[in-house]
Structures are given as structure tokens and as C-alpha cells.
Write a structure and sequence with these properties.
The chain is of the alpha/beta class and about 525 residues long. The protein is built from 16 helices and 28 strands. This is Aldehyde dehydrogenase.
Length: about 525
């Protein structure tokens, strides 16, 4: 029986609800920017395209450089007032914003489905992690601010599209809770309407948020180098992160630059294949489009036959397709591991990389088919990619040394512990890694040699929530580390000559490694 779109979940339904719930931020013909304390019908709207089925959705109202400069100056005015608001009142306003977001939880999640292609379960989780995470900070903020105060200027946030709520909005609300005005550029590739609705709900409660859209090159002089800023927070790839770091090099400004790394899963003297098979299936959540995804497995050669026997059933069981397609109108939304990639250009680029890697000697251990996906009749599926696994990717391939940000695994075989560690450290630093080994002492010894901020022993690691610290080693991170109390310290001023934990141009201070 052909699948149908779940009634009430169309883009028109979602956008119509936005216009009804926040008419100040959503007009029938466009989304607005927010700066200077009001919603501005400025900028040049550019049509957006949903990766779900290729249809047109609301696109970003792109500001020019001069407008961005004015927006940052207005945020600085907001900051000078907000920093003097008592903590109790700041906490009350942020809590009211969280209550409003909770009331609009499902609409925020539906926007994420359409704008960045998240399956329903993961879209809800993104919203919930933001709300629950910030509530924890509201409860803990008193002790975190002892001896600390707001920065001299607002915090500027530039983040990738994959976690608009649990990373970007979460950070902005904690920054505001700590006494700073917060600025964000909407990600170019998706998340505009979700962020706009969340921002509108927070602004109504008096939280000083600025939300603007535009190209990175056009807005960077204001959002990175603007003299009014107190801190720049960036989440994204190494190329863009390197450009931000270069722009900041002569300013001595507080910064948090989270960049990608090739997160690896090493397997050595291991035998619990049933558990590993379940873990491998889970690594395909959201098509590995996250900074803590595991796209590389480094496997002891003598265990390869057992690894394959565990791996193939896991990857064959992955479910993907249209996140809102159901068999019957009354059915619940489907339980999928992933939907589309962020756009069809990404899907094509990754397909070309796969073909090139195989042509140059990589072995296609598994290559799924889009015929196995769940799609509506006749829908555009150009942004979708079925799971792929390549054994021994050639060294000349981008898949050998870079994070694919798609459902593609590469597998490297090794014979010695030294080879294992060299393969796991191929990208000069990563955010997370895992060692699967039956002997805990051996696993822990190997883990200490892996250049990742968090290393799991027989289990995956993630960014974490609440008190968990987060950072990266090597080229995967620049500036202050975050997570738990460190997030507040990163966006507040403390004792004179304080040296925050992190990777800075003139020093590196690393807290106790998170190996568990």
C-alpha cells in the first residue's frame, strides 16, 4: 500500500501554526530578523528547500554587512542593560521562555523535521535536550556564578545546522542566564523557522536575543570581529573554523570554536559482538550528521570475520526514508534511524566520494539501495543516501581522513596496537572515540593514547548534557572548553589573569580526561 503524508504535518500546516503563534516573527510571505529589540522586516529573503522532499519552504532573510553591524551595536546596548538585571529575575525570564517552548514542543520538532530532515523521535529529542538542559543550569547557576560576572559585550554564536535547539538555542539561553545578551546567525542550510519560533518565545519573556540571517562572508566582520563583542562561539567544520580563528587571531577575544574530527571506534582483543552490533546500529542515528558520530572503525585483522558478522546485520537493519510518511492516516509517525541528508548537493558530493574511493581500491563491504527506503509515491529523493561501508579506503580519498557527515562508514584493518592508535589518531584530534576491548586495563591504557576529548570503554560517547564537560583535542577545538560549569565560565569574567581550560594560542589546559 502506498505511503501517505501524516495529516496535519505538512509544511503549510507547520508554517501556518508559526504565523498564528508568533505573528510578530512570521509573516505570510517571509520570516523576520530580530535585532534592536524588535522584529525587523529587513534583509533579502531567499527561498529555502526542504531536504525531505525538495519542495520550497521559508528561507533566510539575508542581511547585508551594514545591517549586521547595526544589529551587533544594538545587541551591545541590550547587553549593557541586561548585565545589571538581578540573577533571580534573569532566571525567572529564562524559565518562562522554557515553559513556553515546552508548550510548543511538537511544533518546534515538526519544523526541525522539515528544515533539516530529522526523524520525529530525534527532532523531539533535540527540543527536549535544549529545554531540560537549560532547566538544569537554572537550578545550578547560583554556585557557578560565585566570583564571576558577565562579559564586556554580547556573545556571538555561529553554529552548524544539525542541532538548532540542543546546541545553539541551549547555548544562547545559558549565555543570557549568565548575564550576557546573545546573538545568533541562523545556519545557512536549515533551522531558520525553528530558531525563529524559539527566539520569539524567549523574546516575549524579556530575554535579550538577537537572531539574524546572512552569508558568512558578509556577516563575519560584524559577528566575528565586531569590537562590541565579548565572545565568539562557533560550531562547524575545520575550514570555516580556521577562518574564524584567523579573524580572531589579533583581537585576544574570548572564543569557543568546536570543529570536526574523525571520531574512531577501535576494536582490539574483543568478543562481545552482540552488544557491538546493537551499538553499530545506533551509530547511524540521524545519518551520522553530528559532531560525535562514529564514521571510522579500526579493527584488529584477526577479528575481522567476527566484526563483519556483527556489522552487516546491524547496517542492514537501518531504517530510513521520509520522516512523516505513514501507511495509514491514523498511524503514528515512523521509527526511523534517519531521513535525508541536509541537501541534495551533499548527497551527490558524498556519492561521488564513495564512487571515487571504490574506483581507487576501496572495497564496498556494504552498499545499500534507496529502494529500501520509505518514501511517498513520486517524491523527490535526491537528498537521500542509503548506508555504505567501505573497507580500506584509499589514502587519497576524503573519506580516509575527514568526517563524511553522512551514513558512510570506513573500516581500517590493523595488526598491532601501534597501528591501531595511529589509525585512530588520523585526523589530528577528535571530539570522541571508543575502544572495545575485553580487558579493561588494556582498554584504558589504549584510551590514554587516543587524541579525543572523550573516550568510551566498550560504549560510545556523546557531547553530553548538564554537568558533562565537552571539548576536543588537536585540530578539533580552539578556545575555551564547555559543558557543565565550564560553559558558564567560558561566557563570564572571573579572577584577573584567569586561565580557562581549553586550547588557546598561547597555552593549553586540559581538564581530567573523560575515559569511561
Amino acid at each position: 500500500m502506498p505511503l501517505v503524508l501524516k495529516p496535519g504535518t505538512s509544511w503549510q500546516d507547520a508554517y501556518g501554526r508559526c504565523c498564528a503563534e508568533a505573528p510578530e516573527a512570521f509573516h505570510d510571505d517571509r520570516v523576520l530578523n530580530h535585532w534592536g529589540g524588535i522584529w525587523q522586516r529587513d534583509g533579502r529573503p531567499v527561498p529555502g528547500v526542504t531536504p525531505v522532499d525538495g519542495t520550497t519552504i521559508a528561507g533566510p532573510p539575508r542581511l547585508d554587512r551594514s545591517a549586521a553591524v547595526r544589529a551587533v551595536r544594538a545587541a551591545f546596548d541590550d547587553h549593557r542593560q541586561w548585565r545589571h538585571v538581578p540573577l533571580g529575575e534573569r532566571a525567572a525570564r529564562v524559565t518562562a521562555a522554557l515553559d513556553s517552548m515546552t508548550a510548543h514542543r511538537e511544533l518546534l520538532a515538526l519544523l526541525l523535521v522539515w528544515e533539516i530532515g530529522k526523524p520525529w523521535r530525534l527532532a523531539l529529542a533535540d527540543v527536549d535536550r535544549c529545554i531540560e538542559g537549560v532547566r538544569w543550569y537554572v537550578e545550578e547557576i547560583d554556585r557557578m556564578l560565585v566570583g564571576r560576572g558577565p562579559l564586556p559585550g554580547p556573545v556571538s554564536n555561529i553554529a552548524s545546522w544539525n542541532y538548532p535547539m540542543s546546541v545553539l538555542m541551549h547555548a544562547m539561553l545559558v549565555q543570557a542566564l549568565a548575564g550576557n545578551a546573545a546573538i545568533a546567525k541562523t545556519p545557512t542550510d536549515g533551522g531558520l523557522s525553528c530558531l525563529t519560533l524559539a527566539c520569539a518565545l524567549a523574546v516575549r519573556e524579556g530575554v535579550p536575543l538577537t537572531l539574524v540571517s546572512g552569508g558568512g562572508a558578509e556577516l563575519s566582520p560584524a559577528l566575528v570581529r565586531g569590537q562590541e563583542l565579548g565572545c565568539v562561539s562557533f560550531v562547524g567544520g575545520r575550514d570555516a573554523g580556521g577562518q574564524v580563528a584567523t579573524s580572531l587571531a589579533d583581537l585576544g577575544r574570548r572564543h569557543v570554536l568546536e570543529q570536526e574530527g574523525l571520531n574512531c571506534w577501535g576494536i582490539w582483543d574483543f568478543g562481545d559482538w552482540e552488544t557491538l552490533s546493537r551499538q553499530i546500529r545506533a551509530t547511524f542515528d540521524y545519518a551520522k550528521q553530528r559532531c560525535t558520530a562514529y564514521p571510522r572503525f579500526v579493527v584488529q585483522r584477526t577479528l575481522f570475520h567476527e566484526f563483519v558478522a556483527a556489522y552487516l546485520p546491524a547496517v542492514q537493519g537501518v531504517r530510513f526514508g521520509h520522516p512523516l510518511a505513514v501507511e495509514s492516516p491514523d498511524d503514528p509517525l515512523p521509527e526511523l534511524d534517519f531521513g535525508p541528508l541536509i541537501n541534495n548537493a551533499k548527497a551527490k558530493d558524498l556519492t561521488d566520494q564513495i564512487d571515487d574511493a571504490i574506483a581507487k581500491g576501496g572495497v564496498p563491504l556494504f552498499r545499500g539501495s534507496l529502494d529500501d527506503g520509505r518514501f511517498l509515491p513520486g517524491q523527490d529523493i535526491s537528498a537521500y543516501l542509503a548506508p555504505v561501508a567501505i573497507l580500506a579506503p584509499p589514502g587519497s580519498s576524503p573519506l580516509f581522513h575527514a568526517e563524511p557527515f553522512g551514513p558512510v562508514d570506513t573500516i581500517v584493518l590493523v595488526d598491532t596496537e601501534a597501528e591501531l592508535l595511529a589509525a585512530m589518531n588520523a585526523s589530528n584530534g577528535a571530539l570522541v572515540a571508543t575502544i572495545s576491548c575485553d580487558d579493561t586495563r588494556t582498554a584504558r591504557r589504549l584510551a590514554t593514547e587516543v587524541r579525543a576529548f572523550k573516550v568510551g570503554l566498550n560504549k560510545p560517547r556523546s557531547r553530553g548534557d548538564r554537568e558533562e564537560l565537552f571539548g576536543g583535542l588537536g585540530g578539533s577545538w580552539r578556545g575555551a572548553f564547555v559543558g557543565g560549569e565550564l560553559l558558564v565560565r567560558a561566557v563570564t569574567s572571573g579572577p584577573e589573569n584567569e586561565r580557562l581550560p581549553g586550547n588557546f594560542p598561547d597555552y593549553t589546559t586540559i581538564p581530567d580526561r573523560a575515559i569511561a
